[in-house]
Fold:
Amino acid sequence: MPDARYAISAIVVTAAVTWALRALPFAALAPMRSSRTIQTLSTRMPAGVMIILVVYCLRDLPISQPRALAPLVALTVTIGLHLWRRNALLSILGGTAIHVALASTVFAH
Amino acid sequence: MGLGFVPLGLAFGALAVQSGLDWWWAALSAAVIFGGSFEFLLIGLVTAVTPLASIALAAFMVNLRHGFYALSFPLHHVRGRLAKTYSTFALCDEAYALAATGEARSWSGRRILCLQLFLHGYWVAGATAGALLGSLIPEGVRGLDFALTALFAVLALEALRGLSGDLPTPVVALLSALAARILFPGQQLLVAFALFTAGFLIHRHLTHRSPRRA
Structure:
């Protein structure tokens, strides 16, 4: 297990980088706010970014192995639940529960 | 929507403790970083004792997307230096997804701050509880990390609703993500965001030119 000083430093370094990325562009990008293209991009960005992050989360999917089915089934359940009930908590909990159930039993390795 | 942070935080805290980190580490990470997706990744990086410079670079890559949020997050509604400072600090994916879309664009600064404080609070509470209860989870239980995938999937569906049938956006995003995964697995996120932005600009250029020529 890593020592406490290192583990805390890792948090501080990450926090500094993350905050800089969140705060500095407000000054740097301010002149671009009036651009129509930038405005349209900013309305499309949330959906695009979230889809990219879903694919990123599944980056280590072992496509050639049957245990790849666990996250795929869970993702289908999450999306299905959300289209059906549109309750974010239910969709997240339902999908995660299915994934834990599958990954811990049928597809445990 | 924000309540989704509690089970997600529970999963994060439990995963941290399962990986051999102390409970307070999860609580500190949740309070000080407040960037869920990278915090999940950080568990693996810290347990592997990755050099701090590599962690900084990885954090930069994964969280670079937050830089784009400045384009449409309504920070100008938030009044006061301290409030603005906190609002930029707590500008997580979900705060952005909720505050920068639809009718929320006209929210008052107070309401935006409240949203962020609640999200932050839920995240820290969830992470701390998950870390404290994590040791109770039996060894064989796996796959809690899927909570993050599920969260992003739900946020994607919500964001897509706001676009009302704009097909190119999800298609371009999906293709960008898959191309980046296959061609540049080491820099997947950065390449995917760059491709998505380029794809959007090309599509917009084409669709805005053709009617004028016809």
In short: Residues 1-34 of chain A form one domain. The two ends of chain A are 24 Å apart (CA to CA). The mean pLDDT of chain A is 89.
